[in-house]
Amino acid sequence: MTSTDRRLATVALALAMLAAPAVRAQDPVGYNLYGAPGLIDMPVGTPGADADFAQTLSYFDGGDKITLSFQMLPRVSGSFRYTGVRDLNFSGFQDYYDRSFDLRVLALKEGRWLPAVTIGLQDFAGTGLFAGEYIAATKTVLPSLSLTLGLGWGRLGADGSDRLPGAPVCPPPAGTGGQPNADSWFRGSPAPFGGLSWQATERLRFKAEYSSDTYECESKSRGVFDRASPVNFGLEWRATPRLTLGAYSMYGNSIALSANVILNPRKALVPLASPGPRAIPPRPDRATNPVAWGTEWHALPASAPILQENLRGLLQAEGLILESLAVGPQVAELRFRDRKFDIRANALGRAARAMAIGLPASVETFRLVPVVDGMAAAVVTVRRSDLERLENDPRGAEELWARTQVTDAGTLPRLAPVPGRYPDFRWSFAPYFRTSYFDPSEPIRAETGLRLRGEVELRPGLVLAGSSRLALAGNMDDARPSEPVLPTSPPSVRTSWPLYERTDGPKIEYLTATQFFRPGRNLYGRLSVGLLETMFAGVSGEVLWRPVDSRLALGIELSRVRQRDYDMRFGLLPYEVTTGHVSAYYDLGGGFLAQVDAGRYLGGDVGATFALDRTFANGWSVGAFFSQTDVTAAEFGEGSFDKGIRFSIPVTWLNGQPSPSRLGTTIRPVQRDGAARLAVRDRLYDRLREDDQGSYAISWGRFWR
Amino acid sequence: MRRAIVALVLLALAGCGSEGAAPQGTMLLLDTIRQARKGGDEPQATALALTRAGLAEVDYPLIRIRVEEGARVSLMYQGQANARHRTFHDIANTSFTFRAGVLTATRGLIPDLYQVDAPRLLALLEGSGPAGKARRIHRRMDATAAIRDEVYDCVLQDLGPEDIVVLDVPVATRYVTEDCTGPAGSFRNQYWQGADGTMWLSKQWLGEDLGYLLVERLVR
Fold it and tell me: Interface pTM (ipTM) of the complex?
């Protein structure tokens, strides 16, 4: 699987946790070695806190695991896990690595007398080695003590696995794996499990459990460890409010260690630490000072450039860029670009304050137009008198939002940009760090080097951009490409990635000319030409219909591309394809965003990708996706079909400094050639996501920050 | 091996670009750790040594604030008045907004008190309402820009005249207390108000992280 330095997110988080102090309510039970809410090896009935994003690293002879878990809803959570068992000698591998997904639903909330009850599916779509199902009930009997009782099936059941009677103890992986194995859920004989969790002190927790996992394959068949007893016990130490370390005695003869980090989008690692805004100067009283409210200034030719220069300076002081200013006696329209703030409402607030400071008293209506890639993204209209009146109102955020209008900016006239604004040149030169996961012969590959990026916007919306990297050290170039599994499998559009790692010298990651434009009301357009991504070059066009007040957006994208040569310079390979999708984006409310992309993929296969993300106003998002195309599971190969999880974390959340940057990554258990989509940059919906009514509504508090 | 050494040396170098430090790669990692270590704020360690004589030439409203936790002490000047609200800034553009001497908002503090709603306290201090039971709401904004209300049940008491000294100058005040209890804890705010309504001295709760804010009016 290919990757970018954005994967650094994981490392940054893990390290920063160690240092970060934070306030967090007591977590009653904690997470288990599987990285799920649980005891030690067994699950519990209580869920994590809403939106908790937990990372767990555990070491145990029965299987080392790294798990990402996300509490998607107060009652629903999911996990993605990578497990390694040393010397398992399974499925043709001496050390066996496995990827698995879990899903958990809280069926019953804990009440005064009733326990919390969770129904869980462990490894419901993997090779099945870790597949188990359970019902777990947990009751807090004392503030510091909770008891758990549960019933397990499959791996957690009496048969030790989801196998049929008489089948081998270490089941060979079923087919290409990766498909929900629903016909084996809750089958066979169940077995009971249970235990307790005691919060002995604020930082110290004691756990003990009776495990129903017999480790048939690992212990009895392969002897990777000796399961001498069903009882496990151990201690957990809350090293920092976010980090918990655990040590356990396992099955009578082994030990286990764990580290668990819990992040939550609502609780920043470092709180926002930026200077406050300038206060809004109230205008002089009109009755006693009518002269100050005159409009004679508007007739003077000098006033427009003076006001523009004032506003340019005022915006610059806030880190914002003035695109143009049109001032009438009562109405002013300010177009600006925000490359500073994590949340657009913050930039709108600062721009509105600048207008209140810099414009004559007669100007009552402020029209703020955030410009994204040269496109006017929305018109936000506020009244100056509302700003003055509500600035210090305890409910100023809600009151101002009720009086703010957000409208489409598609039919705004073209305005001359501020003199000297274009061409706008930006560049950066920095080290990078790339990683690649899940290769059975080398679970983690990494590379470091230098990257030079440049971008010049010649006029609003016309952008030339390029990025080049030079690898200095790493082992990415040792990876070997996998062959198509069947003659009818799609061509190697992604599995050939190791070939792109082999040559030395500078490589061009992308080199493009892009024109962004507004074809009409509610419409946005993009046309890109050049080396579009690391593996494909060509031409790509996109049109998006996105009313600013609609939950629904629709897009169409069409590209004609050729595979790039493996040296990642200007050469091209013979493979050529027309690819494109129609996309629907729907804001389900509560931060949930659904997306469907249907069309033809790079391998020529036809189908659709379905995605669901939980997003937060500050740019946090965690989601999952899967694709179905006319490539069969056998043709697709390992994993059976394309699927994965993705997350994005705003830099502001990490370091407290305002920034529009986000770190994120997409994790696929397996990268194959089916349902592979062109990785063109600057897809319109993502670029414009911050500028619609729904996004402003949930973050309008930041207008006054 | 040589390549690895070169790489390490290069990684130690800062990224550079037209936007200043590029927020990517290694630099971000280092920055994140550094920010996390210091908690994003550097408290000023020393109190401000001030004398009345030293303020003789100051002809604009000036307050001295002290944040209990973190030992931050700042002199703040009045940047803006809007109706009955007064906003005071320090040089780093941290601001505190007051009405009738009651803190109504902070900006740039970590964490901020986004808004305070205490209508009965304001009425008492502005001379239009009685002491007694009152409700106070602290509005806070989380990292996702969601605003949450902390609601407190309070008791307002007018404890009558009290003479105090503010930076060597005796002033006659009335002493008002506000005892509050809520899910986020309990606290007692104290106010010493001059006969003309000037708030000479106050001690006001910012929250669990920062403790109390002490405000002295140095120049009216």
Answer: 0.86
